[in-house]
Each structure stands twice: as structure tokens, then as C-alpha cells.
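3.2 Worked example (two chains)
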Amino acid sequence: MVLVADAPELLRSPVALPSLRSGGERSANSNRSFVAPELLRSPVALPSLRYGGERSANSNRSFVAPELLRSPVELPSLRSGGERSANSNRSFVAPELLRSPRAGGVGRQDRVPLLAQIVIGIGMCVSLLLAAGCSSAKAPERDVFVTTKVVATTNILADFVRAVGGERVEVKTLIKLGADPHSYTPNESEVQSLGDADLIVRNGAGLEPWLEDAIVSSATRAKVVDASIGIALLHETAGAIDPHIWMNPRNAKVMVHSIEQALRRADPKHADSYVGGEEAYNVALDELDRGAKEQFARVSNKTLITTSHGLRYFADAYGLQLVTDVLPKPSQKQELSAAVLHRLLQKLNASKVAAVFPELPLPPRTSEAFATLDATVQIIIASQQLYVDTLGPESSTGQRYASMMVHDASVIANGLEKL
């Protein structure tokens, strides 16, 4: 315990006394210390003065000269600025050192602007932090535009996907324009596109028997959508399922709904966009369906012959009698022989079918041969081809599904009305 005895003059003015290492006087033979009366004549806080006082070489006492504190200053630890005797352990500060309030360190006159600067600096930092925090906390979320990658087996399905997904989908078609979907074989790049896809849309109903192997080869993780689910399937003459389900616009609505559901599951954040796309497209499908019904309601003879086996769903939708075993399915370059034409004449006369609707335009000589047939009925060859297995080329009336169906209905209805 340290006992401090102070002269009566020591506390004549209120002052806080820190530990004085060199500013007081300590007896060599005692543990008591005191400060000279003159030391505190002015109110001042004394820090530890390492070199601001005077220490006797033969004693443990130290003191500060009266002149040391004639001006109110705060003395920090003074490492340099004092004078030390080479032969003694005493140190002192020259009176002139502290005659200015700036001597020895920062005085009270400097303390106010320094504190003000600190407060202002802290305030600026806090303001910047609050401004940054508010701007980041209240920043609206940005809708990062990411498309769903979809691979559709046919261009008709791709048209459905675009109608529902709009700009939020990136669509690739496997089967190229004009190719036969029944016997298609995908190449290496097309298999790779399956591997990169988020969603694969297939027609189903037996149209793409090659797709399973391609999916396995691609090692894709994409979800596969079978668009035929929920559709009442029809059968061909041989008993096989007819896969041309899209030729009835009411079936197309079922297919579109399956696609919309799949897109919603793949991208739930934009579900409303897909619902809106489906609803808008259904309006177009309902309109073309209503128009086709009105056209065929005016037709009395509803029996037609065609080279296409893909019109069964179309005929079922509009109450038509379809005959598909009269004409073979020719190509645009393959002419029919005279023997084949003779057999066709017999079938036409027996069935009283007067309108022929080829899926592709008949070769020139075959078309001319039909015109010279000695038939008991008037034979009308449709001047325009029908679009069944695929959409038509760009700029044609069959380049989109809706316009394709309007085209086919108009060609067939107009041909039957001529009878």
C-alpha cells in the first residue's frame, strides 16, 4: 500500500493526479511521495512524465520546477524534448519548453478540434455505412433471365412448346423438316442435345420407337414428357395405334396442357407466364376448331380418299368417312404404273369417291392419268397438298400448327363442296 502525504497547498485547486513517475518527490528512505505546492497552482492533469521532472542521482526523489506548469497544459510522456545529465539520473524540462500550450504534446486548446475531427470522422463513417446498408438491404431483386432448354421430337411439338413458353424456353427439334418421324435416326449432335436438355417432349403413341435408345446414349437427366397421356387413342386398320394425335385440335389442347405442366415444374418461378401462354394458345385452337366445324357442316358428301394414313383423328373430329386403301402413298417423283391406275379406277367407281386428297402433290403423269380415267364419278384432285406428319416450310401456310390445320380443313372442305 502506498501512502501519499501532500502539503496543504497541494489541493488548493481541483486536479486529478495520475501516477507521477517523475513529476513528484519521493524520499529515498520512505515510500511516501509529495508534490511541491507550486506544482498545482493551475488546474492541470499530469500524465506520467518520464523526462519532464528532475531526479536526484543519490535519491529516489523527483520534482518539477515551478515554472514547468505556469501555463495549463497536458503533458504526455516526453521521450525527447528534455535534457538529461550524463552524470546523474535526474531529468528536467526547461521552462521555455512548456511556455506554449503546444509544448510537450497536445494541449487543451488542441484537444477540442481534435475531438471534433474524431467525432466528424466517426459520423461520416457511420453515415456511409448506413447508406450502404440501406441501399443493399432495399435493393430490388433482379430477375436473372434463364431459359429452360427443351428438345422436342417433332416440329409440331416444338411449335406447342414455343406457344406456351415464349422467350423463356430454348427449343430444339430432333426430326428435321420433311423427314419421316416413324423411321428417324438421330445423329451424334442430336443425341448430345438430349444430354444438354432440361426437358424432352415426345409425341408418344408409338411415333418415336428410336427415342429410348437415344435417351440412354445421351445419359440425360432431363424430364421426359409424353404428350399422348390423356388422349383417347385410335387404331389403324391393322390394329396398331395411330400416333397422329395432333390432327385433332382438341387433342392438341391436351398435349399443350401436358407441356405447360412440365414447364411449370421445371421453372416454378414463372408458372404464371406458362399458364398465360397456354390460355392464349387455347383461344387460337378453339377458333380453328370452330371454323373447321362450320366448313364441314356445309358439306353433304363427307367421304374422301387420301394417300395419307394420318387423317384418322381429323376425320373423327369432323364426322368424315376416311378411305385410305385406294391410293398408295407415292413420293413426288415416283409415278404410278398403268396397272396401279386401273385398280384405282375400279376402287373409285365402287366407293363412289369423287375427291382425292394426296398428302404430297401427285407426280405430273399420275395427275394427268387421273384426269383421263373413264370413271362413273367425277374425280377431283386437290391442287394443294396436305400437311400431316410435319409442318410446312417457312412462308408456307403450314409453317405453324394453327395455320397448318386451317389449311388442311380448307383444302378438304373446298374439294368436297365441288361435288
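3.2.1 Second chain
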Amino acid sequence: MIRSSTAADYYVDPVAGNIANAGTALKPWSTLAAVFSATPPKAFQAGDHLYLRRGDHGTVVLSGINTGDVFIEAEAGHTPAVKLSLLNAQHWLIKGLTILGAVEIGNPKNENSHDNTFENCYLPNGGFRVCSSRITLRGNHIRNGGIHFQYHSNNGLVTGNTIEDFFSDAMNMKGNFNVFEYNLVMNSHKVNKNHNDMFQGWASKGNVLRGNEFRAFSDPKQPDLVKPGLSDVQGIGLFDGWYEDWIIENNVLFVDHAIGIWLEGAKRCIVRNNTVVRCGENAAIPDRLPNIRITGKKPGKPGGTRPMSVDCILQNNVAERFEWDDSVTGQNLNNIVVDQKAFGSTFLDWAKRDLHLKPGASNVIDRGSSANTPPKLDADGNARPAGTAWDCGAFERGPNSPSADTAPPSKPSGLRAIAIANYGVDLHWSASTDNRKVTGYDLFRNGVKIGRTRAGTNYLDINADTTGTYTVQAFDHSDNRSALSEGARSKTP
């Protein structure tokens, strides 16, 4: 973006600011809430930046129609927190904030908050509820909530987000022509008998699910997994169609249920190069084997005939089971059943749940079809095909494919714990390195794990009120772990 020569920088500091100040770095305003409730109102133009410093910025209903993006972002080295919703707001870019509770972007009666972006924000106890079009959600980290993404609008982009510790549907989408790609969804918690879907859609058209990783849980000893009478975790559920012109490709799913991917009532939908495997022990029961299925639409009455799903493509997938029956027309090509006995010889490191293909896995390598223009990239962004034909599943085995990974990340360094009165402890550290990629960091207070971040090198320990020593530990995709950082001690005044 080319910044206007008249654009301005403003600073907002709950600890040392005053709303009567000029809003400069040396004389900052007080809180974001004060800025948006000021009399007369503060005025902004496209290209302006509001840099927020650490502290509690209050509760803000963000409004204002801009002609280009106005930026609200954390100043480098700061972790500001705010409760935030958007109403009659356009062209705002929100970056690097800790946002408490759920973010409402418009509502069903007012969809006039379109063309906004949230990037690299941390939501420790909420999610996004989107009721306006052209919303981009990029690189955010969302934890501890019900439906983390309710996307009930059109033409949006949801990319590179991490969603973990959810107790309802993780992603719920009503709308058309949206793209959900390269997100990580993990760790469903069972709190009632209602089933959880990692992604549930509603009748719609033109949507894309690409390169996402869905893990029902990452720790098989998670306590609530064994509560009797509670439901299991489904993958991608598109029930009660019609679903038209969807593309579902290069996704990886670990599910604790028979439903890996199910389209129930589809027209011209493409499901290709996905990998679906079991996550828990329920899959040991034959009728619970994780599957990919396309069926006709749900009958209008019990015992009725399913209306036909038409012109669909099911191609180059890997799963423990497939279903394509007489209620579907289209092409069912080169889908490979891989059962548990073959996991070790098919996947690079099944013990660590690494589903990249093992060298020499002839059951899936070069076994795909080139019909219908399959994807030119795999889930890692590597070119397809790397051999004589497309590989089946989400990953292509080629010159850039990883080998089994046993190397841990380097130890995090430079940990700082900054206490803020009535607020919490703000943690910052220097990034670790890894032979592949650092996936995230676990945070500890007095040796007890308090949280995890995948979105950067900072964390807010909200409402910490006891003296404690903090440490941080890096991990990679194979769960190789660094040594603990040196401790940093803090006490909230």
C-alpha cells in the first residue's frame, strides 16, 4: 500500500496517556475507548496509524466509514488488550491486539461493516461473528470458546488462523464465495451430548476449503475425551444442501467420528486430494471408520428418496473409507483406501501424526488422476505433480518434501515479564529457530502450563495476581520441544 503524504501516526497509552493530549509518541492519548468516545470525535483518514501500547483499552464499538484502510495496531513490544465490536465501520485494519470476548462485525440487522481486516490478533476467550461482506481474518489465534468463527456473509477470506480448545463447532459458515484456507483447527472439548463439527456449512455456493488442518484433539489423554455419553468430533459437515460449486482440496483431517468430509446435497462440487484419518479409539469400530462421502440431499420426509447430487468430482483422496452411491452423478476417480495397518508404511511418521508421504509409499505416490485439472500445489505449497502423476492425499512427495524430524527448536531467549496493575503480566521473548519451522510456544508459570501461542513471541497472562516465575518452551510440527527458557519473575502490583 502506498501511504498518503498526509497520513498521520497516533499513539494510545492507558498507563501514561491522556485523552486531552495531542496523540503523539511523547504525548499519547489514554485508551482506545476514550479515543472513540471523545467529544468532539477524533477524525481519521486513509493511511493513518493508531499505535496502541500495553494496558487495558476498554470496550470499543468501532465505527467510521473510511475510503482506505486506517490501521489500529500494537506498537512494537507491546500487548494492548481491548473488547471490540464493529458497527457501521469500513476499511479498518486491526493488527496484533489481544481482544477479549467475541468480536461482532456487524449484525444480522446491520451488515454495513464490510471491507475490514483482523490480522495477528490473539483472542483468549472468544471468536469472530461476521455479518458483513469482504472481511479478511488472517493469522489470528483463537482459544477457549464455542463457535470460534461464525462467518455469515460473502466474499471473505479466512487464512492462516489457529483455533484451539473449542466446545461447539469451531467454524460455522453461511454465505457465498468465501475462501477458508491454511487454518489450523484443534482440540475439541466435550461439554454436552451435541456433536462438535470442526467445520459446518449451510446451503451456499462458490466456497473454497483449501489446505486446512483439522485435529479433533492433539493429546489422546485429554480428560474430557473419555466422559461417557458425550458426543464425538466430526470433520467437515455440509448437511441439508444444496451446496453448489464448492472446492474442498488439500485438507488434512484427524477425526474422532465416521464423518470426515460429508456433502449431503451437492451440485458441481469438487472434493480432491484430501487426507482423512482417525484421531481416537472410536475409529476401531468398523462403522466409525473416518470417511469421505458425497450423497444425495436429505429426503424431505423420513423414508423418502434422496434428491440426486449431480456433476460432482471425488478424486485423488486418501481415507479409511469412501461413500459414493446411486444418489450421486459425476466422477469418482483414484481415491485410495488406507487402513490403520498401512499408516506406518504410507505416512512419514504416524507416531507423531505427520501425514507427509513416506518415500516409497507406492500405494499413494503417483497414483492420482490428472483429469479435471487437479491442484497444482499441495498443502505445503509444493508443486504437483512431482513424479509421473499426481500423488493422492493432501501432500505430494517430491524434492522439497520433509524427512522424519527429530530435531528440537532452539531454546527461546530474552524472556521479559512486565506487570501492569489491574491487568496482568505481559510476556515477550526472542524467537526460536528450527530445522523446519517453529509451530508455537507453551507458557509456564511456576512450572505449570498456563497457555500456548502460535501467533508470535508474546503472550498476555490475564489477571495474574501472584508472584511467579515464567518460562517458555518452543515446539515444532512433530512436537519436538526445546529446552525451557531462562525464567523471568514478575508480580502484578
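3.3 Remarks
The chain has two helices and 44 strands.
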